[in-house]
Design goal:
This protein has about 375 residues and is of the alpha+beta class. The chain has helices at about 10-15, 150-155, 180-195, 220, 265-280, 280-285, 305-310, 315; strands at about 5, 10, 20-25, 35-50, 65, 70, 70-75, 75-85, 90-105, 110-115, 125-130, 140-145, 165-170, 200-205, 235, 240-245, 290-295, 325, 335, 345-350, 355-360, 365-370, 375-380. The protein contains 8 helices and 23 strands. The longest helix has 17 residues, at about 180-195. The radius of gyration is 22 Å and the shape is globular.
Length: about 375
């Protein structure tokens, strides 16, 4: 006998579900980690977590963490789950699940379909390590202005391997516009997941090109931070305190290109006030190295965006003991020593080079490499 949902047989409603993008790690902290992925149909999702180790993931029941909002499980195609209560500097293994929701007509009338998950049968489960302010040494890579060039992304992040590097920083303009979801997944994030992003956390400093396109207002939904829905934030890993700023667009808000939708002057002023408070934090004050990550440099340009960064960020950063500022945007390499405008070095990275950074008690070393892995420049900074 056929079973019906209303006038539709249930067999006709049944369908497969796929994880289409991800999972990738975001908003990494000492005590939590956020996992992001998407599915091709509406679903409810969860994460199963196990301690690091060599025992089977199925040795025992693993705790589950659900995507929730205001007491309800979330139904949708974009899945973001923050796993709380973790221990700093600790390895965990994980698996993600999404169960298709075929019909949703109120809490008491839900029809579920199949379930998709990451695979722990034929491969090792995915893993991550939480951040740890007490670590004595760290390693990370910075790339920028990739604009969808997959070969360059692969070459420049060749050393971003779990266990070797702590994190990767995308310093803006990874794509040329944000017209829809497929742009940034096809443009760089799918490849990043294949290479490292399911196990090595990614931190993002938005570039001016990510502010463009009708999908730009949803950017923070796909790249959440530890500062609510703000795209400016800070974090600490080992001896390094990171300040990530969002420079916004590079032309005045009134420019015809923005069709009256830009309000970046006020947004940068908001960040300037936040920055003053951030520089008083214990994490910043006790760090051996203090890095600022921002896409548009405050120097080497007289465009409006650079002027705004110069006028609204530099007054707070000067005399704060900043180790260095890493930028992109200009599509050419430049290194500016401390001077009258800024009392710290500004390193503007090119689009076809990566910054590989190592920091420990002896100092912080920044090596700029090309796509062949050849060393082009090396800089060394002592601890504060």
């Amino acid at each position: 006998m056929a079973v019906f949902w209303g006038l539709i047989p249930l067999w006709a409603l049944a369908q497969d579900i796929r994880i289409t993008h991800g999972p990738y790690l975001q908003a990494a902290g000492e005590n939590e980690m956020t996992l992001v992925w998407t599915t091709d149909v509406d679903a409810v999702s969860w994460v199963e977590l196990a301690p690091g180790g060599n025992d089977s993931f199925y040795a025992r029941e693993r705790p589950a963490f659900y995507q929730m909002k205001d007491g309800n499980r979330v139904v949708g195609r974009l899945h973001k789950i923050t796993v709380p209560g973790l221990v700093g500097g600790t390895e965990y293994r994980y698996r993600v699940f999404s169960k298709a929701v075929l019909r949703y007509e109120g809490q008491s009338n839900v029809l579920y379909g199949h379930t998709a998950s990451t695979d722990v049968y034929s491969r090792n489960p995915l893993r991550f390590r939480t951040l740890d302010a007490g670590r004595t040494e760290i390693a990370f890579t910075v790339v920028n202005d990739i604009h969808g060039r997959m070969d360059d992304l692969r070459a420049l992040t060749r050393n971003a391997v779990y266990g070797s590097e702590d994190l990767v920083i995308f310093n803006g303009d990874m794509v040329s516009e944000m017209e829809d979801e497929t742009v940034f997944f096809a443009g760089f994030m799918d490849e990043a997941v294949k290479l490292f992003a399911s196990e090595v956390p990614v931190f993002y400093a938005r570039g001016n090109h990510e502010t463009r396109g009708k999908f730009n207002v949803r950017f923070s939904s796909y790249f959440p931070t530890n500062n609510g829905d703000k795209l400016y934030y800070s974090f600490r890993q080992g001896p390094v305190h990171f300040i990530v700023l969002d420079a916004g667009e590079d032309k005045p808000d009134s420019d015809i290109e923005y069709s009256g939708l830009s309000q970046f002057d006020a947004y940068r002023s908001e960040q300037g006030e936040w920055l003053k408070r951030e520089l008083q934090s214990e994490s910043f004050r006790t760090a051996g190295y203090r890095l600022v990550i921002v896409h548009i440099p405050p120097v080497d340009s007289d465009w409006h965006g650079a002027v705004e960064v110069r006028e609204k960020f530099l007054p707070a950063l000067n005399s704060a003991g900043i180790t260095a500022m890493f930028c992109g945007h200009t599509h050419r390499y430049n290194y500016l020593e401390p001077g009258s405008l800024h009392d710290f070095p500004v390193l503007i990275n090119a689009p076809n080079t990566a910054l590989e950074v190592r920091a420990d008690a002896a100092g912080m070393t920044v090596v700029r490499k090309d796509t062949d892995g050849k060393e082009l420049n090396r800089f060394h900074y002592p601890a504060k």
